[in-house]
Amino acid sequence: NSSKVSLDSETMATKEDVQDPRIPKIASSIRVIPDFPKPGIMFQDITTLLLDTEAFKDTIDIFVERYKGKGISVVAGVEARGFIFGPPIALAIGAKFVPMRKPKKLPGKVISEEYSLEYGTDKIEMHVGAVEPGERAIIIDDLIATGGTLAAAIRLLERVGVTIAECACVIELPVLKGREKLGETPLFILVTSDAA
Amino acid sequence: SLPKSLNKRESERKTADFFIFRSSLTMSGNKQEEDPRINGIKTKIRVVPDFPKKGIMFQDITTVLLDPKAFKDTIDLFVERYRDKNISVVAGIEARGFLFGPPIALAIGAKFVPLRKPKKLPGETIFEEYELEYGNDRLEMHVGAVEAGDRALVVDDLIATGGTLCAAINLLERVGAEVVECACVIELPELKGRQRLKGKPLCMLVEYR
């Protein structure tokens, strides 16, 4: 799509290519909790990353280096762990931060997008007027699993005329094929985990 | 008619209080010494009437986050205050404390510790109960996140009755941390939350009456 300013192909390299030397420490700072929230799930706990000041700083720095100066005016973060990584990135690149929340949390007028869960559906909401048509956004969450939430966030932003340059997560669980739900939107991640 | 020695202590205490009060003026919303950035932040806060229920004037900080300068100024004001205070932990209260706590933590080189509603944290937790208007709720923290001797800041977007902040202070003190201060963007002083902080000081940027 020639109208987009594209991130150059080297920075789009996946984990298997040249790995940033900061990544192993970031990966090892993530704690895996078995059987949470239910038996069989190996939960990727980023709270231990947040306790490691160097790992947390490096995580933010990697994202900032990737997105600074690329015309990104919106960082959208998915509640609640996206709120931890999104704002520091937004502040460093001079973009607005837009929280995307579960229903009934945002006080003003909202638009919603529904998405499927394993059983049933859920909704993600954004304030009307937070973003404007033509803006370029990145969407941040701590982890991509099935991709349902991120796909809903993409749809929500696209409905109001925003272009999503990329989705960015600390962790991907590739076994769950979340990337496929994102359509044409690229995904950038720091760490992959086979635990799912 | 008090003995001279008591008078001297009393006047020293009053002098100390005076200096503490004056140094907090720049952050207290007192107009005489207000940092020039505060007005810019205040004008960005959106008040939403009757949310979450009739009669409540909700202080919406999402509009501050939409203004990169106002958001940066908010963080800078707190960072300037805390960077030389040897703070090792910034504890942020879910979910809006997560918006302000991490940028402060990163800038001052402290760990960030999320304090969450029940069942969100995956590892072993401790909890503290607090009162709502109707019923109770709980705040949880991961075991091991904070160590005895840690110097902690508690961050939230707003202090109303102070119940959640009090629960946060209790959690941190129970594991042996020292709570240095609570930091909020907004205070609703009429709800007297400041008095529920177990004697800990409160730093806020904007008052709403």
TrEMBL record, chain A:
<comment type="subunit">
    <text>Homodimer.</text>
</comment>
<dbReference type="GO" id="GO:0003999">
    <property type="term" value="F:adenine phosphoribosyltransferase activity"/>
</dbReference>
<comment type="similarity">
    <text>Belongs to the purine/pyrimidine phosphoribosyltransferase family.</text>
</comment>
<dbReference type="InterPro" id="IPR000836">
    <property type="entry name" value="PRTase_dom"/>
</dbReference>
<dbReference type="GO" id="GO:0005737">
    <property type="term" value="C:cytoplasm"/>
</dbReference>
<dbReference type="InterPro" id="IPR050120">
    <property type="entry name" value="Adenine_PRTase"/>
</dbReference>
<dbReference type="GO" id="GO:0006168">
    <property type="term" value="P:adenine salvage"/>
</dbReference>
<keyword id="KW-0328">Glycosyltransferase</keyword>
<dbReference type="InterPro" id="IPR029057">
    <property type="entry name" value="PRTase-like"/>
</dbReference>
<keyword id="KW-0808">Transferase</keyword>
<keyword id="KW-0660">Purine salvage</keyword>
<comment type="pathway">
    <text>Purine metabolism; AMP biosynthesis via salvage pathway; AMP from adenine: step 1/1.</text>
</comment>
<keyword id="KW-0963">Cytoplasm</keyword>
<dbReference type="GO" id="GO:0006166">
    <property type="term" value="P:purine ribonucleoside salvage"/>
</dbReference>
<feature type="domain" description="Phosphoribosyltransferase">
    <location>
        <begin position="65"/>
        <end position="174"/>
    </location>
</feature>
<protein>
    <recommendedName>
        <fullName>adenine phosphoribosyltransferase</fullName>
        <ecNumber>2.4.2.7</ecNumber>
    </recommendedName>
</protein>
<dbReference type="InterPro" id="IPR005764">
    <property type="entry name" value="Ade_phspho_trans"/>
</dbReference>
<dbReference type="Pfam" id="PF00156">
    <property type="entry name" value="Pribosyltran"/>
</dbReference>
<dbReference type="GO" id="GO:0044209">
    <property type="term" value="P:AMP salvage"/>
</dbReference>
TrEMBL record, chain B:
<dbReference type="GO" id="GO:0003999">
    <property type="term" value="F:adenine phosphoribosyltransferase activity"/>
</dbReference>
<dbReference type="GO" id="GO:0006166">
    <property type="term" value="P:purine ribonucleoside salvage"/>
</dbReference>
<comment type="pathway">
    <text>Purine metabolism; AMP biosynthesis via salvage pathway; AMP from adenine: step 1/1.</text>
</comment>
<comment type="subunit">
    <text>Homodimer.</text>
</comment>
<dbReference type="GO" id="GO:0044209">
    <property type="term" value="P:AMP salvage"/>
</dbReference>
<comment type="similarity">
    <text>Belongs to the purine/pyrimidine phosphoribosyltransferase family.</text>
</comment>
<dbReference type="InterPro" id="IPR050120">
    <property type="entry name" value="Adenine_PRTase"/>
</dbReference>
<dbReference type="Pfam" id="PF00156">
    <property type="entry name" value="Pribosyltran"/>
</dbReference>
<dbReference type="GO" id="GO:0005737">
    <property type="term" value="C:cytoplasm"/>
</dbReference>
<keyword id="KW-0660">Purine salvage</keyword>
<dbReference type="InterPro" id="IPR000836">
    <property type="entry name" value="PRTase_dom"/>
</dbReference>
<dbReference type="InterPro" id="IPR029057">
    <property type="entry name" value="PRTase-like"/>
</dbReference>
<keyword id="KW-0808">Transferase</keyword>
<dbReference type="InterPro" id="IPR005764">
    <property type="entry name" value="Ade_phspho_trans"/>
</dbReference>
<keyword id="KW-0963">Cytoplasm</keyword>
<protein>
    <recommendedName>
        <fullName>adenine phosphoribosyltransferase</fullName>
        <ecNumber>2.4.2.7</ecNumber>
    </recommendedName>
</protein>
<feature type="domain" description="Phosphoribosyltransferase">
    <location>
        <begin position="66"/>
        <end position="192"/>
    </location>
</feature>
<keyword id="KW-0328">Glycosyltransferase</keyword>
<dbReference type="GO" id="GO:0006168">
    <property type="term" value="P:adenine salvage"/>
</dbReference>
